[in-house]
Design a protein that fits this description.
RlaP; Nucleotidyltransferase domain-containing protein; about 250 residues; globular; Beta Polymerase, domain 2; alpha+beta
C-alpha cells in the first residue's frame, strides 16, 4: 500500500483499482516469486481536456524493488483495451488479491464483461501463450518447473471459455477441476503443484509424460484455430459512461 500511495502522490492520480496479477494470484507462487502489482488510475478531469491528450503517457511504471513489480494503466487506456477484450485487464478484474478498490470502477467493468469480453479472442490469446511456452521450454528432458503452469493454465482457461463462454477464472485450483476426472493427469498436476510451491523460481524438473501428452493433445486440437473478430454485444457508450462517471467523481484537481 505504501508504494501505491506514493505513486498516487508522485503522479497526481487517483488509483481506482490495484491487484496482484501473477503467480501469487494464480495460486502457484514459489517462495521467492515477485509481487506483480497492477493498477488502474485516473488523472483529474482537465488532464484529458487537452489537444495533445493522445500524446501523453498513459502508463506508470517502476523498476522491480524488493521483489515488487508495480505498474499501472490510465483508465482511458484500460477501457480501450477492455473493448478489445484484452486478457490482462480481464484477468485483473478477477484477481482474488485486491489491494485497492474504489467500489465503483472495477464493479462496473465486471458488470459489462459478459457483453464486452470475447471468448474467441480469449481462446486465441491463451492458445498463443501455451504454444509459445511449450515450444520454447517444455520439449526437453529437463524443463523449468514453472513453465508447466504457464502452459497448463492457458490450456485450462481455453476449456473454460469453450464450456461456459465467459471469462475464465484466474485461480489455477478452480481451472484444474475441469480435468479432475482424468485421474492420472490430476495426480501428476497435484505432485507438480506441491513441488512448485516449495521450489525457487528457476527450479528445473524432469519432464512429466502424462502432462506432456495432455498438452500436446490440446494443442493439436486447436491447430487451425482462428479468432472470430466480430463477436461482441456492447457498444462504446457503456465504456464512455463509466469513464465519465469516474472523472466526475475524482476528487483530484490539476
Amino acid at each position: 500500500m505504501r508504494r501505491i500511495t506514493a505513486a498516487e502522490q508522485e503522479h497526481n492520480v487517483k488509483i481506482l483499482y490495484a491487484v496482484e496479477s501473477g503467480s501469487r494470484a494464480w495460486g502457484f507462487a514459489s517462495p521467492n516469486s515477485d509481487y506483480d502489482v497492477r493498477f488502474i488510475y485516473a488523472h483529474p478531469k482537465d488532464w484529458y481536456l487537452t489537444v495533445n491528450v493522445e500524446d501523453k503517457r498513459d502508463v506508470i511504471e517502476y523498476p522491480i524493488v524488493d521483489e515488487i513489480d508495480i505498474n499501472g494503466w490510465d483508465i482511458k487506456k484500460a477501457l480501450k483495451l477492455f473493448w478489445k477484450s484484452n486478457p490482462a485487464f480481464i484477468e485483473w478484474l478477477q484477481s482474488p488479491i485486491v489491494y485497492v478498490d474504489d467500489g465503483h470502477f472495477a464493479a462496473q467493468a465486471r458488470e459489462m464483461m459478459p457483453r464486452v469480453a470475447s471468448s474467441y479472442k480469449g481462446i486465441y490469446h491463451y492458445l498463443h501463450m501455451a504454444k509459445g511456452n511449450y515450444r520454447e521450454y517444455l520439449k526437453k528432458d529437463v524443463v523449468p518447473l514453472k513453465k508447466y503452469f504457464y502452459v497448463l493454465r492457458p490450456l485450462l482457461a481455453i476449456i473454460w471459455l469453450e464450456r461456459y463462454d465467459k471469462p475464465a477464472p484466474i485461480e489455477f485450483d478452480v481451472l484444474r477441476k475441469l480435468v479432475a476426472d482424468n485421474t492420472l493427469l490430476d495426480s501428476a498436476i497435484t505432485d507438480l503443484l506441491a513441488r512448485k510451491k516449495v521450489s525457487l523460481e528457476k527450479e528445473y524438473a524432469s519432464a512429466v509424460p502424462v502432462i506432456n501428452d495432455f498438452i500436446e493433445s490440446e494443442l493439436k486440437r486447436h491447430e487451425s484455430y482462428a479468432a472470430n473478430t466480430t463477436e461482441r454485444d456492447a457498444n462504446f457508450d457503456e465504456l464512455n459512461i463509466l469513464f465519465q462517471s469516474v472523472l466526475e467523481s475524482n476528487p483530484l484537481r490539476v
